Amino acid sequence: MLGNDIVDLSVDEFKYLNHKYIGRSLSDLEQEYLQNTSRKNVFLWSLWAAKEACYKASQKKNHQLIFSPASIALPQSYLAKLVNHDYESPLVNTCKYQSKVFQTQHSWIGVKAIHCLAVEADSSHVLSEVDVAISCHNELSEYAEQSVMVRKIAQQLLESKGVKASIERPLIQMNGYTKAGPPVLCSIENKQLLKHEISLSHDGSWVAVALKLHTE
Fold this sequence. Notes:
This protein has about 220 residues and is α+β, with helices and mostly antiparallel strands. It contains five helices and eleven strands. It has a single domain (about 1-210), classed as CATH 3.90.470.20. Helices cover about 30% and strands about 30% of the residues. The chain is globular and about 55 Å long.
């Protein structure tokens, strides 16, 4: 189970002032930590990136899962590390969600963007097995353009690993309607589903791809 999320810090720099939004998105403890930090914008979106990444990873197994950020409550130990971090070096944490334990890794790209990777914690070395590609494209102004670009970066990463695959989003049924599900990889030769895992994310000018190859 693999998920990743990237946040462009220039898109909503003062979202932490929206109390209604904060109440819907953060637990009471998370809100307390937010109020006590001097870098509220970075802290808020670091929380959000972790929640999104864990949700995306969980949704791969449970397609009916609805994103409810307040329900993904990060433990106090996680919050303490995050609020006291220098935001200059990567930070690894663990988070429990939907009865699963995830390893997360935050990376901060200066004051421009935040990336979080989440993997099910079934191995102490699992994070090191994930390849990540992150890039910035200032010309991206529309959601559709961001979606095209992240797929382009994903294909470049796949090619660099010698993987010939197409990125598909099979349709799933959720609450009475049909929507595109989490991305999967299919063999170009026979259209069979591959075991390799991929996660796509984009926000503003930034796109990110996470790829975990399975050799078995």
